[in-house]
Amino acid sequence: MRGKYIKQNKGAATLELLIAFAILIINITAVMLLISGGQSIYVDSETNSEALSFTQQRIEQARGETETNFNSIVSSPIGGINITSGPITYKATDIVTDFSPCLKQLSTQLDYKSESRTQYVSLVTLIGSVTEALALGGDCSIEPLGGGADWDNPITATSVGIGGQGATDIDVHNNFIYLTSAPSAASKEDFFIYQFDPVVITLTEKSKMNVSKGLNAVDVINDYAFTANNETSNNLKIFNISNPTSPSVIASVSLPGMTVGIARSIFYYNNNVYIGTQYLACLSCSPQQNNEFHVFDVSNPASPVWRGSFKVNHNINSIVVRNNYAYLATSDNNGEIRIYDISDPANISLTGLFNAPGNENGESLFLLGNKLYLGRDRTPAARKDFYILDISNPASPTELGSKNLGLNPNTVVVGVVVKGNLAFLALDNPTSGLQILNISNPSNIVKHTVCTTLNFSENSTALDMEGDVIFSANKSNNEIRVIKDQTSTCP
User: Is 372 exposed, middle or buried (0-12, 13-18, 19+ CB in 10 A)?
Assistant: First the structure.
């Protein structure tokens, strides 16, 4: 994602990055132009110019749509779109590749015939969304998958342990790693900050704290870490992390009406934090008692304001949010994914459901473009545990593809990160903590070809990716594992 810099200036650096990103969006044009054929300049120059003009118009139109609906920029239908101009019919084909929630690659090609010869003009450009980058608090990669990383030969670059107590979640920003833990001994630390040096490939501990009985999840935005606390009170804990060597808790807030249970998941979007808890049984509760889904306004992180909640009646294991919708991975046997309209947090309503065959829980989510990626737990060997859904219409999510990962019973897909045509999955499995999938064709998901064995000695609990580096959180031994692709080709 972003380069290494001194953490005390992290907020300013993020702002500078967003400004640079905005300039990139405004100024970037096609990064590659291809014109096929050995045609005569005199005969074909006018047709070439017209084809190039149409191609540029399509790209400019797509860039204009970023201001209103970034995710409306999608690949054209199979077969392309015909554009007729006089005697010439051009076939326009748009291919959109999503690299992050705020970065797409658009490849537009116009095919045509000139003097019985097939010609084409092709333009490739990057299109970004400042709006989405700001809504995610800058937690959005502005780099495509690349730099020589084709992930055919990944290795563990480095790793570090925190004493064998296990990690629960991980979030990585600007080469700083934020790790949470819920140790069995209440006296042990549960919040850790490490710095990753991408040049010498080292992990350096900057600080660690013992703030509660444990922390279950973390989402870091600029100078603040929002965490789900493993206690029945003070469920939301917020850290000021502007100085990585001396983080401090600036807010501890209990979920209103919650009498039992703990928070399990957390997600930041557009100055709000969304918290999911375990299932809270309640036979005679008022509308705001023992609700599992809560919304806080964190415009002022030191003083969060509760805005509303909803009774889900299931464990909420993962949350992603975009615009007016929250997507929840739950333990609901009839809807592993539950989609809620959160446009008015005081009146949250159920919008849509997705139910996969079987009673396995939804465990992890990743939202990219108009696709939602779901990881489940594994019980019977015949069931699918990874799904790709089209959520263009949140009220009616549809399956685009799914895969049986061939996992052992009781293995859980605890983390999903998607970049381009690759999906990286973190697995709660003692011998295989990572799988990489090629998802270029959702109806035919295949394991990405690698020449190395992705065997880890730990069970993974979470996954994050920054640039072309994967960071895995694990239950024991090496709680942080850094995975990179080797530049050398497979033997």
Answer: buried
Q: Specify whether the CB–CB gap between 417 and 464 falls below 8 A.
A: yes
Task: Cite the beta strand spans of 342-430 per DSSP E.
Answer: 349-354, 362-368, 371-376, 386-390, 398-403, 413-419, 422-427
Looking at the DSSP bridge assignments, the partners of residue 118 are 113
Domain spans of the chain, in order of start: 7-135, 154-485
For residue 325, which of 354, 304, 303 has the smallest C-alpha distance?
354
| Backbone CA torsion sign across 267, 288, 312, 184 | positive
**Residue 449 reports pLDDT greater than 60:** yes
Give the tens place of pLDDT for each residue, 252-266.
999 998 878 899 999
- The pLDDT of residue 134 is 87
Single out the residue of 479, 424, 463 nearest to residue 151, CA to CA.
424
Q: Minimal CA–CA distance to 471: which of 165, 172, 205, 222?
A: 172
Question: Pairing state of beta strands 371-376 and 224-229?
Answer: unpaired
332: left (phi over 0), alpha (psi -120 to 50) or beta: beta
Spatial distance between the Cα atoms of 320 and 338, rounded to a whole number of angstroms: 11
Q: Residues 3-9: contacts with CB within 8 Å, 24+ apart?
A: 3/174, 3/175, 4/174, 4/175, 4/197, 4/198, 5/174, 7/174, 7/176, 7/195, 7/206, 7/241, 7/242, 7/243, 7/244, 8/242, 8/243
Q: Give me the mean pLDDT over the 69-87 stretch.
A: 81
Residues 6+ apart with CB under 8 A from 278: 261, 262, 264, 292, 315, 316
The tens digit of pLDDT for each residue in 151-174 reads 888 889 999 999 889 999 999 998
Q: Which two tokens stand for residue 349?
A: 């309503």
| 204-229 CB burial, b ≥16 within 10 A, e <16 | eebebbebbbbbbbbbbbbbbbbbbb
- What is the homologous superfamily of the domain 154-485 according to CATH? YVTN repeat-like/Quinoprotein amine dehydrogenase (2.130.10.10)
Dihedral sign for Cα 32, 33, 36, 39, please.
Answer: negative
d(CA 270, CA 373): 21
d(CA 80, CA 286): 54
Q: How far apart are CA 309 and CA 442, in angstroms?
A: 34
Q: Which two tokens stand for residue 220?
A: 């870091």
Query: What is the per-residue pLDDT for 47?
Result: 74
Six-digit token string for 262? 């703990």
pLDDT at position 382: 77
What are the E-state strand segments in 198-242?
202-209, 215-221, 224-229, 236-240
Which of 6 and 117 is assigned the larger pLDDT?
Answer: 117
Compute the Cα dihedral for 342, 135, 366, 214 and give only its sign: negative
Query: How far apart, in whole angstroms, are the C-alpha atoms of residue 264 and residue 85?
Result: 58
